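User: Show me an example of a complex going from sequences to structure tokens.

Assistant: Sure. Here are the input components:
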Amino acid sequence: MKRLLNDGYDAVEELLDGYVKAHGDVVKLADNERVVVRTTLSPQPKVGIIFGGGSGHEPLFLGYVGEGVADAAVIGNVNTSPDPIACYDAVTAVDQGKGCLYLYGNYQGDVLNFDMGAEMAADDGITVETVLITDDVYSAKDRADRRGVAGDVIVLMAACAVANTGADLATVKAAAEKANDNTYSMGVALSSSTLPVTGKPIFDIGPDDMEVGMGIHGEPGIERKKLEPADAVMDEILGIVLPDMNLQSGERVAVMINGLGGLPLMDQYICYRRVHDVLTEKGVTIAKSMVGNYATSMDMIGMGVTLVRLDDELEAWLNAPFDAPYLKQG
Amino acid sequence: MKRLLNDGYDAVEELLDGYVKAHGDVVKLADNERVVVRTTLSPQPKVGIIFGGGSGHEPLFLGYVGEGVADAAVIGNVNTSPDPIACYDAVTAVDQGKGCLYLYGNYQGDVLNFDMGAEMAADDGITVETVLITDDVYSAKDRADRRGVAGDVIVLMAACAVANTGADLATVKAAAEKANDNTYSMGVALSSSTLPVTGKPIFDIGPDDMEVGMGIHGEPGIERKKLEPADAVMDEILGIVLPDMNLQSGERVAVMINGLGGLPLMDQYICYRRVHDVLTEKGVTIAKSMVGNYATSMDMIGMGVTLVRLDDELEAWLNAPFDAPYLKQG
């Protein structure tokens, strides 16, 4: 598919330059130009929340830097981990003496580089803890091995809500872990994204085909099959996610429909409708709904369903006030 | 391109059903199911703001119904005017005794049907005024003949900011007219949108081609040409828009980069960057920036630039507090 870029090798730098020019009242680049930070940190010292990963998922991660949300985003090349120095520089840019929490999706390259950043910060006497986000149900049987997808945003919200109370690092980390443990996602892709450097798709897919369970970078899913109506696709996703989370009648959930970039809002709301109706029929209460492009794969046509099992505490965290360009509420 | 729908004939009804289920705390359907209204109207009576047009431009129009924003959205079929009864029913649903203002893009079918709605309301003794939005620079030489595109959102913001003060209908209408008179847009399309009923594009365009000046429904533009780098496309657009608005050094503007649905945020910020740099170089101050999918054509790959010439009054209107699902600020 077509993109509107200059030299693809410059795309990430130009994105970041454009982003801080558009939102200069909220964010700026740190001395390290792959680190987006709030223009002014919280007046009350708090645990620094550092969010990050490869670019190509906008508005993830940089769109969630703002008041009461992430303090910094560390940005890698497209579908590529940020480098360790950037991970470290984000810590020195936002630490207020209470330590920092790294939040990112569970991908090998990210783990290696963020861990190195945390070690470098430790040499400076700054404590950095990590919560890996692991919400992609289909990517592995065990929670700890799963990849992170749109659940990144859910876990971020929980961590930030608690960090904003002035809580200590262990408490903030525990909140993020609780949110992650209760978040389940699964998606479907109808097309590949188009890479800026090559101008080509990452993979080929037939004109009538879809892939159920595909990852946000194009990682293989369950099966390649003929494209079905939206309701059938939602039923297939829920048929896997609901048993995995063992959701029972009487429970409460948050529902996120996450567009991967190229899927119209019309389609996303039609998908939401089916998820709403199936859950309601099952006796599950939807206490919060989020629909839109929260974590994309650039122009990929596709979407994911994210369900969050709620208790009063987690529900309150997800309803906290946030004010970043791509996350405003309360 | 691929969509994720059920029967295409049901797409608009399913969209509306999904939308009010997802955002039931903010909106509901009126007795007329093509009218989306606020769940509770303003406690202080105000001029009713009614926004509308064909569907397929989401989040336009329904995404802007909310507290301090539109009181109702009237929704037609895809790329088709809402019917006159719906236009009328929106008035009876939201009028608080101060009259209503219709705001919509200048398209013949919309004008006919909204005018009929206003006549029916007049028979009930309710005054309805209209401001046609006419921001698409390339669509006609004279302002009054131009089509409305993303400027719809700018004009809505101005009208709502003034309506929220409790101003009378004439004052609110004058504010909308002032915003419209100062708003200039032009776009480029790299692909057609895909119609839900047919599953087919509206028009064909070559794999390396773009159309400069294309309308939001696929109306023909200036010329079909080879796709160029983002900066060159922005320069071409600004080369037409800036002389048309006769923008001078020392002036202040708001800039909106509006994605048409299929263009990644990465590309939109790269486009924003060039517009920012060209205006800054010219001595123009950007006092407000908006980047994202404000008025789409479903999955169309493309974007538009909207510039708003500001004075203190108009700038204050655009910075007023708004709280709709797709317009939150302040």
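The lines above are the inputs; the final block is the predicted structure for all two components together. Residues 8-181 of chain B form a domain with the Rossmann fold fold (CATH 3.40.50.10440).
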